Amino acid sequence: MERLLLLCLGFTLLAPTAAMGCGVTCLADFRERTGIRSPIPIPIRDGVLWTRPATGNSESRFAQPRGWGTAALGAAALASRYWTDGPDEPAWEGGTLFDDDVRDSLRARSESGRDRAADVSDFLEGVLWTYLVVDTALISDWELQKQVWLINLDATFLNFMTTDVAKFSAGRRRPHGGNNRSFWSGHASNAATAAGLSCAHHLKAQRYGEPWADGLACAGVAALAAATGVLRVVGDRHYVTDVIAGWGAGFLAGYLLPSVWHYAETRPNASTGRFLPIVGRREFGVRYVANF
Fold this sequence. Notes:
Blueprint (H helix, E strand, L loop, with lengths): L1 H33 L9 E2 L2 E4 L8 E3 L4 H17 L15 H8 L4 H27 L4 H29 L15 H20 L5 H24 L5 H23 L11 E6 L4 E6 L3
Antiparallel strand pairs: 1-2, 2-3, 4-5
Helix pairs in contact: 1-7, 2-5, 4-6, 4-7, 5-6, 5-8, 6-7, 6-8, 7-8
């Protein structure tokens, strides 16, 4: 089991690192061929981020994050951290559904093995956040980098807030005892949020400018997030349902929210449709007019 985990760890650490190295190479080649500093030409117009994808001829409009919204989410996350400490008495104990079967199969047999699994899960979560921070800091266009930072903070604050509220509301006892903050797994949700953000930036905005390099980066961080959650079960820190719920919450905050809200694509000249009255000798009604 430990050899298999080490092998998986080596692969998952290698994939995003290789993708970043390839991305830097791709950017250098792009700059040499075109003379453009940024990997993708990104002018800012009317408070909206516009970018031309690496493939296709159509432009995409990306909604620009607002600083006040990020500040509000940050304040809510800070409040939840201080006001939602775990209850003294558990409201939920024991496994449910397939928790006990998975726990018996994956839990390390020795206490030292469980402690090592927990330590590695801490390390992997740190790797994911470090990769996201470094990858964002390497964006050469400052205006784009600032907007990506805001997107990252929005998702991170949302994840912190919902995770704290869930832990307080569920009051689930950890499988090894400890405290009553087992559901859902904070490591799993944090890892999925960081991985989801990286995937959103690479798959939606083509951060490296090459689809296969961006796909490799996303696959690597997704594998790291999966390994982080599995190790929480191996270390007996969480039930598998805690981890699955954490993955889902992190995916919603880290990938779905940026993809739907910030990276939703529309045509650059599209405008909101409107209804116009129709009055004539042979027709009477309402017509809906919009640009498509």
